[in-house]
Each structure stands twice: as structure tokens, then as C-alpha cells.
Specification:
55 strands; signal; elongated; 691 residues; 7 domains; Immunoglobulin-like; five-stranded antiparallel beta sheet; mainly beta; Fibronectin type-III domain-containing protein; transmembrane helix; 3% helix
Length: 691
């Protein structure tokens, strides 16, 4: 029965009170002596996805009059037993739309009888339950099948049998994992839970055996998911996208582990999002404004627009026209015979030109260009193809000229520009020097002063003259010692030093001067250069004058003496004496200053004798018996005994020697204690010999 309540409004019209219609949404029923209020507004068109447990439904049309929302109550049952309850709240704005609810079971849906019940609730009123049930299987079945699991996860398998059958056991095959738990869910359903703590070598199997002896099974594979990382996407032409990532751990070679990459992208306003997905599955995301991820292509048609002796103007073009809108920074790489010389960097909007400066005339250069965006620099673009360019010729630069005095000879040396014919002038005489030579040796009177001028000449003309004044060099050489890897220089004050003092430091005994340093000073100081131990240096100190420098001192020495190769021995027998000799050791081969030599000799009886002479180039052992002797010669230096060259000599009555090499000459670095002991022993034996 329907009831309508009418009322006249202030305008005299009759209206119906609509809220009274809500009375038609519910009815009252009597059951077991109690009254329940049943809500007619409920779900309709209910569907259930059996694989994902996704439940969908719509509202009954009668729900449209509800203004403050309603609630749907859900209940999931397994084997007719409630295992989970849930609810979905529907707002007034959502009434009339499709609603959904999803539940994840620890068992596959086919492993047990699953059902879902659904009803609506409003103002303590409930609609009747609506139930959806998954169908039963009519065969022996082990699920899930052919699944890939992650190592470290837990997998649950189930075995179902139809009515009239029972399960005897469930077990694993071809898997080494030991953490397995079997559970009886019902007479017709058993489950097997496995902790997958290691990778499968191949397919592994879950076997289900029933009471009648029949078996069924399912295969699975445990592996590591792809752990690729660092997905980065960029654009080269501002129209397409390139993406890169680091490939992680390689899975085993099982076909199921084949990696299949899918690149998905979509525009998010002005940004573009790239997603890399795999079957295994893995998802990597990168999101960026691609105008800030421009990896530029190589410039095209790089060429020289203008070539001068000392600079080149370059030009190039772009195949991507949109580059003309970007503020660019470009590097120009300059090489000579595949050796890198320098890079220049240029800036500009749509840059297509650059100037290379400070070049050498008449040289062949290899030039290439690459660019990047200046405002949002991402990375350098590709290098262009290398272009060979030769600068135009020019007159040579002024030469860098040096001198070195060795006894009565003076060596003039210089650094030259390529492709030059050099000229040297001295004492009003002229000498032409070919471009293959970088020095000239002169025999000069050390008591006189000379002026030497050197110019370089080529087909374009001559360089500015380079002049060096050779002062009077009739000063003796002094030895100097270094300390802590440095030289300490001091000198008497010279009244001629109007502009200070100059020291020149070079390696001693070189045919061509090997210049290390030339500096100005007004007081004694320590030279903190990176000197080499065991190398002899020549130091010259000059007074700086308005004319030529005046030589004040010449010194030779070591910053630190070392033990180095010194000599090879020769020997000769005369009656009962043996003379051991060696050639003089040039100073340039001495790694320490030699103060003398010591000869050790020992016969079969074990007696040791020695003689020493700081000036000798030979030492003689006299009054020897007919026997076999071991002769050893060492040099006495500031760092101890150097050298350990030995020979074995057998004396005979006829004065002929039988010589056996005792070994190649080599240097032995002795500890301080051993050196001290040998010196004491040597001088003690020498004292006994002369007494």
C-alpha cells in the first residue's frame, strides 16, 4: 500500500513530501518471533573474476533516493567457512556507478570452494545477501601450474580431487629446498607451502598422489628477477626518445628466464614518462623534461672558412633544425699527428662557427667539433668527423737559445720552429746550420767575452734575432753537496750585480744543454726542485749586469748520492803478485763521488787481506802463495761501499792465471749496519797489513 501526504504551500500549490518515499525502500518481516528491517536498496549485476577474486556490482535503481551514502558488507568463504570480511563505503556522488572489491588468497582459487557474499547497509537496515560461488573442479588437479617465483619468496600449491577420492601425499621433485610444509584443508584439498631459498636449475615439480595410486603434478621455476637499474632517457632530435639502463644479474639460461623488454611512454603535460617493463616482471621509471635531456648529434660539414698563419675560422651545420633555438656550448678538439694539443670552448645560440687561435704557422692540424646545451647541460654530443687543416706559412718565431760550457768548448743550443733553415753568427763570422741540428759547438777562449746571435729563416723570411752573451768563464769548478733533496746556494756579494743574481741549473756532462731552471734572486736560498738522486748537476751563479752576466761560481754535485754501477775488473799475474785494474769512471756515470777503492782477497784458508788507495785505477796484491784467491774490488763513497765485483784467480808457478767469473757486476744496497761493519773490518785488515 502506498501513502501520500499532501500539503499546500504559501503559493497555494499542493506538493508531496518526498522523504516519505523512503518508507517504500524497506519492509518488515517476522522470523523466529523477531522483526528485521530489510533494505530493498542492494547490489545488482554482480560479477566475480575467478582468477583475480575481483568482485564488481552496480546499485539497484531504488538506491538513487539515498542522499547520505550507504555501505556494502562483503564476506569471503573458503570451504563454506568465513575467512575474510570487508566493506565498501559508497558516497552519495558514487551511487549509481560501478563498485569493485578485490581480495588476494594465499591459495589458488581452484584449490578450495570459494564464495563471496554481498549486501548493502543503510540506517541499521540490510539488504538480503547475494552470493557468488566459484565452480568446483571435476578432476585431480595441482595448482598453480608453470609459474615463475622469486627466490626468497614463499609459494603455496594445492591438490584437489573430486568427490569419492582422497589424497595420500604431496611432495617436491627436482628442487633442493628443504623448508616444506603440507596442510590438509579438507578431504578433497591439500596444500603444500615451499620457501624458495635457492634458484632452480630447471623446472621443479609438485606431485600429488591419491589413495588409488594415481598422480598429478605442476611445474614451477624459482629464479631472481631482473635487477636492471638506472634507466635514463634522452632525445637527440627532440622528436624521438632513446632510453638506456644497466643490465643487472644474469639469470640462468632457462628459456623461462628470457628477458623481454617493453618501453612504454606517455606525455604528462610537458614531461614525458618512460617505463621499462619486463615479463619477469620489473618496472623502471624515468621522468624528465626532454628539453633538459638533449644529447646532440655530431655537427655536419665541418670546414675552415678562413685560414691564417696563426688562427683558423671554422664553420659547420646541423641536421636537427631545432638546435638553432638552443643556447649551445661547443668544444673544438685540435690534434697534431693523433696527439691531443688543446681544446677550445665556444658559446652561442644555435652555434655554427668558432675561431681557433694560437696556432703554429705551416702546420697540419686535425680538428673536430662536439656540442651540448649550455643552459641545461646533459652530456656532450657526438664528435664530428675529423678535418685536416694546414695553417698558412709565416716568418719563424724568435728562438729560445741556451749555452753550455764544457772545458774549452761552448755548445749553443735552441728550440726551433718546424720547416726552418737556421743561421748562427759569432765573431763576425756566419755559419749555416741545417734544420735537423738544434745545436752548434764552438771552441772559444774562456778568458774572452762573446756575443752569439741566432736567427731562423724560411721561405717567408727570418725571425727576430736571439742573442746570448758568453761571459768569461775562467773559473774553477767546486763540489757542492745537497741536503734533503735540495741545493743550498750562497755566494759572496758582487758590486757588479746591478740587477741581482742569476743561477742556471742543468744536468752535468750532456752534449746538448738540458735546461732545468733559470731564476733571479738577490739573496742566498734553497732550490726546491724535483731533483733525481744519483744524478750530477752543474750549477752556475752569475751577477746580473747591464751587459752580459758575470760568472761568479761554478759548482757540481748531487742532491743525494746513490750506489750505482761503476766498473768492470781486469787482472794480471806477475810472479807471486796479482794486479787488479779498471778503467777510469767518467763523472757522468758516477751516481756518487768516489773517494777511493778497496781490494779484498781471500784464499782457501779463509784469510782476508786488503789494501786501499784513493787515487788508484789498479791495486796489486803481492807475495801470494800458489793457491786459488777470490778478489773483490769496491769503491769508497759518501754513501758507503759501492760495487761488489769479484773474480776467482788460481796462481801457478809459471805465472799464468786461471780465472773464473764470480758473477756479473751489480750494486748491493747495504744497510747502515752492514756498511759500518764492512768499513771497520776493511780498515782493521789494512792496519794489520801495513804493520
Amino acid at each position: 500500500m502506498k501513502f501520500f501526504f499532501l500539503q499546500r504551500n504559501k503559493h497555494g500549490r499542493i506538493i508531496m513530501i518526498t522523504w516519505l518515499l523512503l518508507l517504500s525502500l524497506s519492509t518488515t518481516s517476522t522470523q523466529d518471533g523477531q522483526e528485521n528491517s530489510v533494505l530493498r536498496c542492494g547490489p545488482q549485476n554482480v560479477t566475480l573474476d575467478y582468477d583475480s577474486f575481483l568482485l564488481k556490482w552496480e546499485d539497484d535503481p531504488s538506491c538513487s533516493v539515498i542522499r547520505d551514502g550507504l555501505v556494502y558488507e562483503l564476506q569471503l568463504l573458503t570451504a563454506d567457512k568465513p575467512v575474510h570480511n570487508g566493506e565498501v563505503v559508497v558516497t552519495p556522488a558514487q551511487i549509481g556507478s560501478t563498485h569493485s572489491w578485490k581480495w588476494t588468497s594465499h591459495l589458488p582459487s581452484q584449490c578450495a570452494r570459494h564464495s563471496v557474499r554481498l549486501r548493502s547497509q543503510y540506517n541499521n537496515q540490510s539488504s538480503p545477501w547475494m552470493q557468488k560461488m566459484l565452480p568446483d573442479q571435476g578432476e585431480i588437479l595441482v595448482l598453480p601450474r608453470n609459474q615463475i617465483f622469486k627466490v626468497g619468496s614463499t609459494a603455496t600449491f594445492c591438490c584437489t580431487v573430486p568427490d569419492g577420492e582422497s589424497i595420500k601425499t604431496m611432495f617436491l621433485l627436482n628442487y633442493k629446498g628443504a623448508n616444506v610444509n603440507a596442510t590438509k584443508i579438507s578431504e578433497h584439498v591439500h596444500s603444500l607451502t615451499v620457501h624458495l631459498d635457492q634458484e632452480s636449475e630447471n623446472w621443479s615439480d609438485v606431485i600429488c598422489e591419491i589413495s588409488k595410486g594415481n598422480i598429478s603434478g605442476a611445474s614451477f621455476h624459482a629464479s631472481y628477477p631482473p635487477d636492471d637499474s638506472d634507466l635514463q632517457c634522452e632525445t637527440r632530435d627532440l622528436e624521438s626518445i632513446d632510453c638506456f639502463w644497466n643490465v643487472g644479474r644474469a639469470a640462468n639460461e632457462h628459456p623461462a628466464m628470457e628477458r623481454i623488454y617493453q618501453l612504454q611512454g606517455r606525455v604528462l603535460k610537458k614531461n614525458k614518462k618512460q617505463t621499462n617493463k619486463k615479463k619477469n616482471p620489473l618496472e623502471l621509471c624515468d621522468r624528465a623534461n626532454l628539453t633538459k635531456r638533449v644529447h646532440m648529434v655530431a655537427p655536419e660539414k665541418v670546414a675552415a672558412s678562413t685560414v691564417n698563419p696563426r688562427n683558423i675560422s671554422l664553420k659547420w651545420s646541423w641536421t636537427v633544425q631545432k638546435y638553432s633555438n638552443f643556447n649551445l656550448t661547443c668544444q673544438v678538439d685540435v690534434r697534431k699527428l693523433k696527439y691531443w694539443l688543446f681544446k677550445t670552448e665556444n658559446f652561442g645560440v644555435g652555434l655554427t662557427a668558432a675561431v681557433i687561435k694560437d696556432l703554429i704557422p705551416h702546420w697540419d692540424y686535425d680538428v673536430r667539433v662536439r656540442c651540448g646545451t649550455a643552459q641545461h647541460f646533459w652530456k656532450w654530443g657526438d664528435w664530428s668527423k675529423s678535418v685536416k687543416i694546414r695553417t698558412k706559412g709565416d716568418v719563424p718565431d724568435a728562438l729560445d737559445v741556451w749555452m753550455k760550457v764544457k772545458e774549452d768548448q761552448t755548445v749553443i743550443s735552441w728550440k726551433v720552429s718546424p720547416s726552418c733553415l737556421l743561421q748562427g753568427f759569432y765573431e763576425s763570422n756566419q755559419t749555416n746550420v741545417s734544420r735537423s741540428n738544434h745545436s752548434l759547438t764552438l771552441t772559444l777562449d774562456p778568458s774572452e767575452e762573446y756575443m752569439v746571435t741566432v736567427t731562423a729563416r724560411n721561405i717567408n723570411g727570418s725571425s727576430s734575432p736571439s742573442t746570448i752573451i758568453i761571459p768569461r768563464l775562467n773559473l774553477g769548478m767546486k763540489l757542492t753537496d745537497g741536503s734533503n733533496g735540495s741545493f743550498f746556494l750562497s755566494w759572496p756579494v758582487s758590486p757588479n750585480a746591478s740587477c741581482g743574481y742569476i743561477y742556471v741549473l742543468i744536468f752535468a756532462y750532456k752534449t746538448v744543454a738540458d735546461h732545468i731552471c733559470i731564476c733571479f734572486s738577490t739573496a742566498p736560498f734553497v732550490i726546491p726542485e724535483n731533483f733525481e738522486d744519483g744524478r750530477r748537476y752543474l750549477l752556475s751563479i752569475y751577477a746580473c749586469t747591464e751587459r752580459a752576466p758575470v760568472l761568479l761560481q761554478r759548482r757540481e754535485g748531487y742532491v743525494r748520492e746513490t750506489k750505482g754501477e761503476l766498473f768492470k775488473l781486469k787482472n794480471k799475474q806477475e810472479d807471486s803478485a796479482v794486479e787488479v785494474s779498471w778503467e777510469p769512471i767518467p763523472l757522468e756515470k758516477q751516481t756518487a763521488s768516489i773517494h777511493g777503492y778497496i781490494l779484498y782477497y781471500q784464499d782457501k784458508s779463509g784469510d782476508v787481506f786488503n789494501v786501499n788507495d784513493p787515487e788508484a785505477t789498479s791495486l796489486t796484491a803481492k807475495n801470494l802463495n800458489i793457491s786459488t784467491y777470490n778478489f773483490t774490488v769496491t769503491a769508497l763513497t759518501a754513501v758507503g761501499l759501492c760495487g761488489n765485483t769479484s773474480i776467482i784467480v788460481t796462481l801457478n808457478p809459471l805465472g799464468r792465471l786461471i780465472i773464473t767469473p764470480y758473477g756479473l757486476f751489480f750494486l748491493v744496497r747495504l744497510s747502515t749496519f752492514v756498511i759500518f761493519f764492512d768499513l771497520l773490518n776493511a780498515f782493521h785488515c789494512f792496519h794489520q797489513l801495513i804493520n
